Amino acid sequence: AAKDAGKGQYATYDPELDERANYDAQLGAELRLAMDRGDFRLVFQPVVRLPDGVTVGAEALIRWHHPQRGVIPPDEFIPAAERTGLIVPLGAWVLDEACRTAAGWLHEQGATRSWMVSVNISARQLRESGFARRVAAALHTSGLPAARLMIEVTETAVFDSRAATESLNEIAALGVAIALDDFGTGHSSLGLLRNIPVSVLKVDKSFIDHITHSTAEATIATAMVSLANGLDLGVVAEGVESAAQARQLHLMGYRLSQGYHFARPMPAAEVGELLAAQSPESADSNLAA
Ligand code: C2E
Ligand code: MG
Ligand code: MG
Ligand code: MG
Fold this sequence. Notes:
Blueprint: H1 15-37, E1 40-49, E2 55-66, E3 70-72, H2 78-84, H3 87-109, E4 116-120, H4 123-127, H5 131-142, E5 149-154, H6 155-158, H7 162-174, E6 177-183, H8 189-195, E7 200-203, H9 215-230, E8 234-238, H10 243-252, E9 256-258, H11 268-277
Ligand C2E binds near residues 78, 94, 181 and 260.
């Protein structure tokens, strides 16, 4: 902070911080307006079983339909929403909307298949007191059974936070599954597995990208699936873009994957059709092991 800086240092004015504060204030105001206008939408990316591509779940991903700038991806506004705290109401909307949508799929098809819907949760949301109650309310209002919901958190969101760990324990007690997202890219990956009630590891795309042409990369991806299998956790390979990757992942022992090779994020109705088109007996595998 400025008062800690020594004499003669220009610490009272940091143009970068100033710019970010302005940027956040502006974007924050726009996000608020967009929430009021209902300019956010969810798309859903199927999570599929290897090797046959049967859909076992879908991840909700937010999109901002900006009246002038068109569709804006989450990486361009989620960080500012986190810094301004707007992620709390926005994330609550995502949770409600995803549960409502998934309850609709269930209603269309009956409960014979074991798919799950997953929702990304930010550190800020997880640390908010009463977050687990919010999850319970989303389930109650939508009628979605707890066993159909998975929340995705990053290692970094949970690391070193008692509040986050408490939220996760409460959420797990509801019967909701917890996935560690972008697994391997955050802090303390392995220690965390002992301390929080995780049921699925989502291996980050960066560990999948080079498995077909790098022995070292293949070794790491193999170690991750063996860790998950040994701990009896589900494991999803993220960002699978080619048939060669899918084949190799299957040989390595991966049973679940997500990526453009199988399906891109799509509107809710298309996921509903995918689920409806699958025969009940083909979807016997469970995302959350
Ligand atoms: P994530 O949770 O790791 O989601 C996976 C991202 O990878 C998605 O990007 C998805 O479209 C993209 N992806 C999936 N398969 C492939 C592939 O084969 N190749 C490539 N290149 N990309 C692939 P998206 O939708 O742009 O989301 C980016 C990140 O934004 C998400 O990463 C998540 O961290 C965050 N996010 C998205 N929606 C929400 C939300 O509702 N709430 C919060 N807090 N964060 C969200
Ligand atoms: Mg995710
Ligand atoms: Mg991820
Ligand atoms: Mg990610």
